[in-house]
Design goal:
Number of domains: 2
Largest sheet: 16 strands, parallel
Number of strands: 16
Distance between the termini: 41 Å
Strand content: 25-35%
CATH topology of the largest domain: Pectate Lyase C-like
Shape: elongated
Length: 228
């Protein structure tokens, strides 16, 4: 995979039209809209398209957004908990301070996307493609990136405890100031650039991948976490 560019600011029009209709349905197209305080919980909007829109404090909880196409958009202070965005395409998109636990982004393609101060605990990125994606101050506890592919991925000050990287194909990855306890499939991070604080948790994760266990003086396995 060629070296991608990093995240890019969404290209929004100087003046956006306030959305009057707050219904998003299958194959709908929203363009150059400002959407504020909308409640789209449970919306059925498969294969919808969003271009140049700014969403503020909008609820998309458990919405079915399968096949969504997003280009040049901002989601700010929103709730996308358990939203389904599998097979979606996101380009030059920012998520700022959004609640996104259990969001489904499996088989999605994310290009030049940024997540800032988002909660992505338990997020499903299985088989997703992430190119030039940056996550800062996010929580991804237990997120699943099984067989995901990534290049130009940057994670800063994120909680990655329990993240699953089994069979992930990761190119250029930079980890700075991240919590890395109990990562599964840590060998997928081969070649990653990490800071010194990652040495112990990554070392333990790699040992777990290799089936290496600590023992006491009598050869008995120590309980997990008791490695002093």
């Amino acid at each position: 995979m060629s070296e991608p560019h990093g995240p890019a600011a969404p290209r929004l029009a100087r003046e956006l039209e306030r959305a009057h209709s707050l219904e998003l349905g299958p194959e709908d197209e929203w363009r150059d809209l400002l959407v504020t305080g909308a409640d789209l919980t449970g919306a059925q909007a498969e294969d919808a398209s969003i271009f140049g829109c700014h969403f503020q404090a909008t609820r998309l909880t458990a919405a079915d957004l399968t096949g969504l196409s997003v280009t040049d958009a901002i989601f700010e202070d929103g709730d996308l908990s358990a939203a389904h965005l599998s097979h979606s395409s996101l380009l030059r998109t920012e998520f700022r301070s959004c609640l996104m636990p259990e969001v489904v982004l499996s088989d999605a393609r994310l290009r030049r996307v940024r997540f800032h101060r988002c909660r992505l605990d338990g997020a499903n990125f299985r088989f997703a493609s992430l190119e030039g994606v940056r996550l800062t101050e996010c929580s991804l506890i237990g997120a699943d990136l099984t067989e995901a592919s990534a290049d130009g991925l940057v994670l800063e000050d994120c909680n990655l405890s329990g993240v699953i990287l089994t069979k992930a194909r990761l190119g250029t990855v930079v980890l700075t100031g991240c919590e890395l306890d109990r990562i599964k499939g840590a060998s997928a991070l081969a070649g990653a650039r990490v800071d010194r604080t990652a040495a112990i948790p990554l070392g333990l994760a790699l040992m777990a991948d290799l089936g290496i266990h600590f023992t006491d003086d009598q050869g008995a396995d120590l309980p997990e976490g008791d490695h002093h």
